[in-house]
Amino acid sequence: MSRFGRIRRRPDHWPTPHHRARARAAERLDGPLGLTEAQWLDQHLAECSACAAVAAQYDADRTALRVMRETS
To answer: What dihedral do alpha carbons 35, 40, 41, 44 form, nearest 10°?
Structure first.
């Protein structure tokens, strides 16, 4: 986990749902989200192609970093 920890904001304290989705997609790389946030994120990503693309890029970056670690 990062030295900053997880972002602990209430769901209604985000400038836009896109900010919330991108932060939660990044957090999900470190471990599972709570049920409510995970369900919200999955629904948002199903409806928002821009945030889904960002989440997919996070996953691709994570995979690439793992491959680099394993080959070093």
So the answer is: 160
